Amino acid sequence: MHERRGIALMLVMVAILVTGTMAVAYFGSTDNSIAIGTNIESAARARAVAESGLEVAIAILETDTEWQTEHIDGVLLSEFHIDDGIVSISVVDANTSLPPNEETSEVEITITSTVNQVTQTTQAYATIIPNEEEYDFDFSEYAIFATSSIEIDDVASVQLWQASPLSLQANPLRIGTLATGPLSVEIDSPTQRSPLELHAPSNASSMLSSASVERHGFTGEPILPAPPSAPTSGSILTLSSAETEHTTDRSGFSSWIQNFAFGNRHSNRSTNNNTVIQSGTYDMETLHLDVGNTIEIQGDVTVNVQQDFLLNGTKIILADNATLTMHVAGDVHISSSYIGNENQSHQSWMDPSRVQLFGHGNNDWEIDGITTIKAEIYAPESEVSFEGISTLCGRVAADEVSMEGASRLLYDATLDHGGYADHNSPLYDDDGQLFSEIGNMTELNADLINSIIASISDQEYASATNRWADWRDEPTARPNDVIFIMLMFAADTHRWEELVRQARREHGTMLAGGIKQ
Questions:
Q1: Do 137 and 444 meet the contact criterion of CB atoms below 8 Å apart?
Q2: Is this prediction's pTM over 0.85?
C-alpha cells in the first residue's frame, strides 16, 4: 500500500504542468493577438488611405492641371500625408508603359500607402476625356435626331454602346425630333428596354410618341443645319475596276453568305482587291464596291462622291489615327459591309467621329444585311433606314430615321458634348435661352460657326465682367471626365464583386428550389 502513494503526487504534478503550459500558451497567444490585431487594423487603414489616394489621383486628372508633364518619372505625389497614412501616386501611359506625355489620355495609376509600417498598393486604369467647351450645333448629344419622324419596329433597338469609355455615365439615352404631329415618333419594339428621353418642340402634340417615354421640350426653336459644303478642289480618285462591276441581281445578304462560306470562289468577279488611300481630298463620280473589296484609309481622307455610294460585302478599314469624311450627293446603299477600325467587332471601341458621313440633298440611305458601321451619319434632308442585322455604332441625324428587323443603334456617349439638351451648354445664355445668333445657323460651315461663337463669346465676356466673383466661392474646377476601373490582381474589382453577388443569388436559388441529382 505504501509503495503506490507516489502515483497521486505524480498525477498532481502532471496536471500542474499541463495547466501551466496551457496558461503560458494562452497568455502567449493573447500577446500575439494584440500584434496581429494591430497589423490587421493597420492594413485596413492603409487600404482605406490608398483608396483615398486614388480619389486624389482622379481629382487631379479631372482638373486642367498639366499633370501630363508636371511629374517626376510619372510620380504625381510622393509621401503625401492623408490622415495618419503616407501616400505616393504614380501614373504611366497605358499604351506605352512610359511616364505620361502631352498626348496621354489613358493611364495606369498606382497608389502606395503606408500606415504604421504596413503598406498597401491599389491600382486602377483610367481614361481621361478632356471637356473642351464645344458649341454643339449638330445635335450629337442625341442617338437619333430626325426632323420629321422616327420609327423603331420589329426587334430593332437603341442602346448605349457598352464598349465606349463613357458607357457607365449617368446621362440619359436621348432621341430628338423637330416634328410636332401625332405619332411622329413610333416605338413598337419589345427589345427596346433601354429607357429613352424624347426631346421635341414645346408645342408638339401630346400624342407625339406611340410609346411612353420621358418628354422634354426645347427652349427656343433649334433647326437642323445643312451639312458642311463638300470640297470642290479634290484630286480624281480611281479605284480598281471592281467599282464598276456592281450588280443588283442578288441581295447583299446572299452575296455576303457566299463570300463568307466559299471565299467567293464561285464568282467570276475579281476578289480581295485591296486599295490604300493616303491623306488628301478626292473626288469621285460614283463609288460602287462589290464583294471582296477592301479600302484602307491612312491619314486624314476626305472623299466627295458626286452621285451614288454603294457597298456590297466590302470593307473600309481605318488605320490607327486615320479619319474619313465622306460627302455623298446621291443615294446610299450599304449591305453586309463594314466601316471602322481594324477590329470589326462592335465590342472594340473606336471614336465614331473619326468617320463622318454627310448626305447632301433629299436622298435614300439604306443600311441592311450584316453591316457594322462605326461613324456619325449626318444627312438632314434624307431618309435613313436600318434593316436586317445592321448596327451603327455612333449616332444619326436625318429627316426621317427608321429601324426595322434586328437592327441596332449603339450610341457612343463620348459624342455628347452638351448641346440643345443641356441648358448649361454654351448654346444658352444666363437666363436659359438660346442665343439669338443660333437662329442664323443654316449650315455647318466653319466660318459661320466661328462668327457665331465669337459673337456669343463677346456677350458672355461682357456679362462676366459685370459680375464680381471671389475665387474662394467655388472649389477647383474639374472639367474633364475620368472613367476608371480599380484593379485587384489585374482584374476589375467591381466586376469581381458583381460575380460574387451573382454566385450568391444562384446559390440561394438552388437552396430554395432544391438541387436535383
A1: yes
A2: no
> Last residue of a domain, which of 387, 415, 443?
415
Higher pLDDT, 250 or 147: 147
Indicate whether 62 and 205 sit together in one domain: no
Average pLDDT over residues 113-139: 84
Q: How is 408-442 classified by DSSP, letter by letter?
A: EEEE-GGG----TT-TTSTTB-TTS-B-GGGGG--
- Using the structure block, give the residue that is written with the C-alpha cell 428596354: 193
Burial of 241 (0-12, 13-18, 19+ CB in 10 A): exposed
Q: Looking at the 3D structure of the chain, how many domains does it have?
A: 2
Place of cell 452638351: 418
- The amino acid occupying position 61 is L
Q: Are residues 271 and 398 located together in one domain of the fold? A: yes
Cβ count near 160 (within 10 Å):
19
What's the Rg (C-alpha) of the chain?
A: 32
Query: End-to-end alpha-carbon separation of the chain, Å?
Result: 67
Tens digit of pLDDT for each residue in 66-122? 888 889 999 999 999 988 899 999 999 988 999 999 889 899 999 999 998 889 888
Q: What are phi and psi of 5, to 5 degrees?
A: -65, -25
**Residue 102 sits in the same domain as residue 228:** no
> What are phi and psi for residue 357, nearest 5 degrees?
-110, 110
Q: Which residues form the domain of 63?
A: 8-129
Q: What whole-number distance in Å separates Cα of residue 517 and Cα of residue 512?
A: 15
pLDDT band at 263, cuts 50/70/90? Answer: very low
Q: Look at residues 76, 95, 129 and tell me which one is the last residue of a structural domain.
A: 129
Instruction: Enter the DSSP assignment of 226.
Output: B
Contacts of 12 (CB under 8 A, 6+ apart): none
Q: Is 345 exposed, middle or buried (0-12, 13-18, 19+ CB in 10 A)?
A: exposed
CA distance 184 to 213: 13
Tell which residue, 296, 298, 289, 297, has the closest CA to residue 259.
289
Taking the C-alpha atoms of residue 501 and residue 505, their distance in angstroms, rounded to an integer, is 6
Neighbours of 235 (CB within 10 A): 9
Retrieve residue 105's grid coordinates: 489620355
pLDDT digits over 431-465, tens only? 888 888 888 888 998 888 888 888 887 665 555 44
CA proximity to 444, closest of 226, 246, 279 = 226
Predicted confidence (pLDDT) per residue in 292-303, tens digit: 899 999 999 999
Length of the chain, please?
A: 517
